[in-house]
From TrEMBL:
Species, as recorded: Photobacterium iliopiscarium
InterPro entries reported for this sequence: ConA-like_dom_sf, Ig-like_fold, LamG-like, PKD_dom, PKD_dom_sf, Sialidase, Sialidase_fam, Sialidase_sf
Swiss-Prot/TrEMBL keywords: Disulfide bond, Signal
Pfam families: BNR_2, Laminin_G_3, PKD_4
This protein's name: exo-alpha-sialidase
Length: 696
């Protein structure tokens, strides 16, 4: 069963009955007629909070619009006062995480922000250039359970102030920040709600055009309230289809809301209905029943489904604090020539910071990602950073020994294959490097034995770095080898192609870079630097070879038009020049690395398929999703969620058995590996036609 955040959220409206999903294995089953389902219990509505909210949003509404609310006059106080209210579940984690903000990112610009920082909840504003806080210690609150927040921007007197309450308890005066002179706050920023990150849930978000008082706040809290009682009832309907409903009782007789997690990644918010599983196995079905005051009961029942089990599995590859490293970041993976999976990561010695003592480390899997071996150090730059690694397997390299004689396999044929790994040695952070205070050098090593041993380190900086620049970064994740028929016609078949980025002249930012590529046509002996994508603010790029021989660069996007989308640039001459850069409207994203990979190609397999993975969200690093395109990235018609929770960098690989693998950061404390097949990805709508696979 794959890892996911349980969305035990409270949704007031009861949606229509659950709909069944596609069944692949019911040709020989008899479908039983549905039983007559009981109706949900009739209850009295709970009158929670004042009824004069200008706007309100349930968690279901927020999820449907990707946790972003388009700017509206009701969301700013103008020259007056305003209040906002919401119920929340906060995870039991340390550090800083946002909840709701309108502008005011990191407190630097006008707007307001609700966030938690090490067990302190803050309500912060910047109005007329003055920052002001209200804050409250919430260390005694039970994590992963419902609580209520009210925040007020009070400009009703000559001295403005911030006010907040949690569960009816107000932050006392000595906890509040400086007062401010009332001024106009009317920003054009949308509201960003951080939903699902590390299990955080926001629900029933309301905006008021006035100051809420203690008496108003008290109407959100009912301390004598009792939680409802619930059990799960289910009945098999034949095949993989089941009927579900809840046996519900609430001591106060109030209206309930319901949230089902069917154990296979499917969730519903109805009282009852049918669900059809795609695969056999045991599923932990959960039902969360919540009353209007957010007293909640979560019950669970195991349901056994006959049939072929799900091909999906997850394994943990790197875990923070494991071995010599406090933190592991930046996943990179390839399949070597013997079928082994090699997972690379930055091993950060003392913290998760992007600079300092960092090594390139590797783990190996010989069973398609089910288990992983020991952590091996591959590159070390003393107490400085060896980082930003990119790797490719050169399947055409003719292996020779130290004397230049061919190395033969058991059949007397010359062995082929070479791993080429490139990374940066950095003696400062990216901003110091970009501004010339520090430097990054491009380093290279190779392996003839699938990563068991490695060659001596070579410095290839002068060959691959843009002249007179200090900044250079290979792509995060795998590089590629060109193999199309068109590449053979054009004399570049077998080219090792690395996408890259650098900081343009006068740019001191580590983010606003320009992308390009460098390559080798002689198995990494010599290197050529291609053209830059001039005038575009891009970085963290991966390349994919299109079926027609063109190369597509898919980039992290800092262009003015980015609109939470990936940027795409195509070269028709293998990186010598580029066409225009466009924003891909179908690939929504926060600013984070992503991964793109060729799965199948029509001249070798049965059809063209491209894969893409990233946190598909506009409100933060969450919702890791794998997409697939049948038309070379023109559209992405297949989409499957890996987790609704927090997620960050990732890298795709194709296993020896043609299953798909994804190495990804859960953005909490692990780098995980997910493995699945085409049937799982497409919900049974597509499968590889093995009889159409052709020799290269």
């Amino acid at each position: 069963m794959y890892k996911k955040t349980i969305l035990a959220v409270c949704i007031a409206a009861i949606l229509p009955l659950m709909m069944g999903c596609h069944d692949n294995d019911d040709n020989h089953t008899t479908v039983k007629p549905p039983i007559e389902l009981p109706k949900p219990p009739i209850g009295i509505p709970g009158e929670v909070g004042p009824s004069d909210a200008l706007q309100s949003f349930t968690s279901a509404t927020l999820l449907n619009q990707d946790n972003q609310i388009v700017d509206h006059n009701d969301f700013d106080p103008g020259t007056g006062s305003m209040s906002l209210s919401f119920f929340f579940k906060a995870p039991a984690i340390s550090g800083t995480h946002s909840m709701i903000r309108k502008g005011n990112q990191f407190g630097a610009d006008e707007g307001y922000n609700v966030f938690i920082d090490n067990k302190i909840i803050y309500f912060r504003s910047k109005i007329g250039g003055v920052k002001s806080d209200a804050k409250l210690n919430i260390s005694k609150l039970k994590p992963d359970s419902w609580h209520h927040f009210v925040g007020v921007i009070n400009q009703d007197s000559a001295t403005g102030k911030m006010e907040l309450w949690v569960d009816g308890v107000k932050a006392t005066e000595n906890h509040e920040g400086p007062s401010f002179t009332p001024a106009e706050l009317n920003t054009s920023n949308d509201i960003i709600v951080t939903q699902n990150e590390s299990g955080q849930i926001i629900d029933d978000l309301r905006f008021f055009g006035r100051v809420l008082t203690q008496a108003d706040v008290d109407t959100f809290v009912k301390k004598s309230n009792q939680a409802p009682e619930a059990t799960i009832i289910y009945s098999p309907l034949g095949g993989k289809k089941f009927q579900f409903y809840g046996n519900i009782n609430d001591p106060e007789g109030e209206v309930m809301s319901y949230w089902w997690d069917m154990g296979d990644g499917t969730t519903y918010s109805s009282f009852s209905g049918e669900h059809e599983y795609q695969y056999g196995g045991k599923y932990a079905v959960k039902l969360a029943v919540t009353d209007p005051w957010r007293a909640e009961t979560i019950v669970e029942k195991s349901v056994e489904v006959e049939g072929k089990p799900s091909p999906y599995f997850e394994s943990v590859v790197f875990k923070h604090g494991e071995g010599a490293y406090a933190c592991y970041r930046i996943p990179t993976i390839i399949k070597s020539g013997n079928g082994d999976l090699l997972a690379f990561s930055e091993g950060r010695v003392s913290s998760c910071a992007d600079h300092g003592d960092i090594d390139v480390v590797m783990k190996r899997s010989t069973d398609n990602g089910k288990t992983w071996g020991n952590t091996n150090q591959v590159a070390d730059f003393g107490n400085k950073a060896a980082q930003n690694m990119s790797v490719v397997y050169d399947e055409f390299y003719p292996q020779v020994d130290a004397d230049g004689a061919a190395i033969l396999d058991d059949n007397g044929n010359q062995k082929l294959g070479l791993i080429v790994l490139v990374w940066n040695n950095a003696n400062g952070n990216e901003h110091d490097v970009a501004s010339g205070k520090a430097e990054r050098r491009a380093m290279l090593i190779t392996s003839l034995d699938h990563g068991v041993t490695w060659s001596a380190v070579r410095d290839i900086t002068d060959a691959v770095r843009v002249p007179d620049q200090k900044m250079h970064i290979p792509p995060t994740g795998h590089a590629i080898q060109l193999t199309t028929p068109q590449a053979k016609t054009d004399g570049v078949h077998g080219r090792l192609f690395f996408a890259a980025q650098y900081s343009p002249e006068g740019q001191s930012s580590g983010a606003y870079n320009e992308n390009y590529a460098f390559w080798s046509d002689d198995h990494g002996e010599t290197w050529v630097r291609g053209a830059q994508i001039i005038g575009e603010s891009l970085n963290e790029v991966q390349a994919v070879e299109l079926a027609n021989g063109h190369v597509m660069l898919n980039s992290r996007n800092y262009r003015p038009t980015w609109g939470n989308h990936r940027a795409v640039t195509i070269s028709e001459d293998y990186g010598v020049s580029y066409g225009s850069t466009v924003d891909d409207d179908e690939l929504i994203t926060p600013r984070v690395a992503a991964t793109i990979l060729r799965y199948t190609r029509e001249d070798i397999h049965d059809k063209n398929r491209l894969l893409f993975a990233n946190p598909a969200s506009t409100s933060g690093r969450q919702n890791m999703t794998v997409k697939m395109s049948y038309d070379e990235g023109e559209s992405w018609t297949v989409s499957k969620n890996i987790t609704t929770g927090s997620a960050a960098y990732s890298d795709l690989v194709i296993q020896q058995d043609m299953n798909i693998g994804l190495l990804w950061e859960d953005n909490v404390d692990e780098i995980r590996y997910s493995s699945f097949d085409l049937d799982w990805l497409t919900k049974g709508e597509d499968a590889l036609e093995l009889n159409k696979f052709k020799n290269k």
